[in-house]
Amino acid sequence: MLGPMFAIGDQGAGVPKPSARLTELPGYGRGRAGPGIAFAHRLGSNEAPDPPSAAVQAAVAKAMTGAHRYPDLRGETLAEALANRHGLPADMVAVSAGSVTMLDQLIRVYCDPGDRVITPWRSYEAYPIIVGGAGARLVEVPLDGRHRLNAAAILQACRSEARVVIICNPNNPTGTVLAPDELEALLDAIPAQTLIILDEAYADYADEAAMVAASPARRLARHRNLAVLRTFSKAWGLAGMRVGYCLADRSVIAAANAVAPPFPLPATAQAAALAALAEEDVVAARIAASLEQRGHMYEGLSALGFEVALSQANFVWLAVGAEAEALTLHLSAAGIAVRCFRGEGVRVTTGTAAATQALLTAAASWLSR
Ligand SMILES: *Cc1c(COP(=O)(O)O)cnc(C)c1O
Hints:
InterPro entries: Aminotrans_II_pyridoxalP_BS, Aminotransferase_I/II_large, HisP_aminotrans, HistidinolP_aminotransfase, PyrdxlP-dep_Trfase, PyrdxlP-dep_Trfase_major, PyrdxlP-dep_Trfase_small. Homodimer. This is Histidinol-phosphate aminotransferase. By secondary structure, this protein is of the alpha/beta class. It has 2 domains: 119 residues, CATH 3.90.1150.10; 224 residues, CATH 3.40.640.10. Helix 1 runs antiparallel to helix 10 and helix 11 runs parallel beside helix 13. The protein is globular. The relative contact order is 0.17. The protein binds pyridoxal-5'-phosphate. The site of pyridoxal-5'-phosphate has 14 residues, from helix 3.
């Protein structure tokens, strides 16, 4: 459940005092067991339910044999493979230890303290932490009544000196998407001096694989102020390896690299990502399984009477408002970890068929309690 990532609290005399920026930052929650609770179904963090394939595990084991040496300075081997996959030159790709690290780099290089960063809200909980940590100001644009991004309101917010706009599509935690033509019109209309960070952590669940691979190059050909973020943590099943990347104009990639630490990717993580890239069929099967369970969840929960947002990601959003915490506790008692957004809703990740069954049973008993 939600808890602070770190406690700033009272530092006391005689110890260094962190920047006052930190006192304002929210914590990052985690859908995981508290002490003494073992969850049978971990549906709180949008992870893949299946472990890495034998080929990925073998590649990691092989990389370990060379782990006394530094890896690529900038993860060039993976960047080249990704450039290939997306039909872009290698200098339009930068890799990072998770896409949140890349987001942090981009915010630091494009924002000075006090600058405005626009984002639809509710969205990904890492945004306020990263933006606030850089001393920039997050401007939250409310979702519409159906939990969708409001393109007109985003555009209006961007028109008054926005340095950066972060668009999460499909949006976490609601799973809703802007239709391709709506998104295209928005990208066209946002002023050219505003950096658009398009966070596509869940793109793989929303479209055909060929489109998912091709869409960044198509968009980047039209928008030099666009940075597309992708991750290996969700559909690619490697959350524990921490691999993310950015596809963008050369100038954006160069700026992001300017603040990247050397050797951003462990050799094992790069090897895992390369091996996963070579097994697109595994990813396709994982996505198909997730979509199947999402359909069962959506239908089952809707039939029970829950308001379920129309999701195109590997999770569903239950807009239960003030009941979010009580529902989370109820599911937790049934051995199901979910992500609670206090006062707003509950996000439930797709898992195995058994997890869906357990969820629907527990949701029914919640309603008849
Ligand atoms: C999970 C997620 C990410 C991925 O973060 P990593 O650091 O790559 O694990 C990025 N953005 C959103 C919106 C997410 O939900």
